[in-house]
Amino acid sequence: MDYNGFAEATERIVDNVERAVAGKREGVFLAVVALLAGGHVLIEDVPGVGKTLLAKSLARSVAGQFRRIQFTPDLLPADVTGTNVYNQGDGAFEFWVGPVFANVVLADEINRASPKTQSALLEAMEEGSVTVDGVTRRLPEPFGVIGTQNPVEHEGTYPLPHAELDRFMVKMALGYPDGDAEVDMLRLSADPVADLRPAVSLDEFARMRGLVEEVHASEAVLRYVVSVTQATREHAAVFLGASPRASRMLLGAARARAASLGRSYCIPDDVKALAPHVLSHRIIAQDSEAVRNGGRGGGAGAVVREVLGRVPINEAV
Known about the structure:
Largest sheet: 5 strands, parallel
Number of strands: 11
Mean pLDDT: 88
CATH superfamily of the largest domain: P-loop containing nucleotide triphosphate hydrolases
CATH topology of the largest domain: Rossmann fold
Radius of gyration: 20 Å
CATH architecture of the largest domain: 3-Layer(aba) Sandwich
Number of domains: 2
Order of helices and strands: HHEHEHEEEHHEEEHEHHHEHHEHH
């Protein structure tokens, strides 16, 4: 597959998901780019706008195995990762895999589980593996987590620790559809995902992930990425800026966007297009109100927009 074929395959995936998630092309494209870059997606939005539908449609479109974990206060880490169970017939313990062993895992209302259970995902999201009773097991490839949380109801929730937020490559919102898209939605069947067929095979999607890593990033692009993230750390309104992991994820997302547009190289526009989604949730602003509004047009989001407006782009790209 060349990068023209990559772009065509990406468009097929996005078109396929849009058959179930009408009128959300930008959000669908962003989620596909994140998964192609080997990242994870956090969707923060009100109920009923298609967060679960997006995750299920993505899994179906790449012929991947889908699992949903409904996070609740009584959920235990073993309910996520799996556990060893004693088999009386064999007289030995055997491992029962948890729902995290899938290609696309929906962590629904992730902030409703305790911090201990939330932390069960950290190794899976960073290392692509799970360790239970000292034994490490690899997760299926490709692997991606789509987490959701409701910004309206906060009672009975546990805010995600910064270390876990930092594992999500992209944070986004879907928003309400426009009138035409909502009418289109009403025309769909009760279960639009059931009507979907894979747009690519799982092996093809895995090869696309490999191609992303080969996308060229010039020295100027690398320095531009670092300049942007460093500027967030030095900003007067910021208590904690974007981490070096953020730089790595921003570059990975930029490479995936470039490949999805048919290019074998990334440019500063790829970085600028994705920086608000990759950096905002990693920044803690000085103002507590700004922190609460971070990533939704205030606080951290405003910092990223201001940084992108003033950090110069090296023309020798």
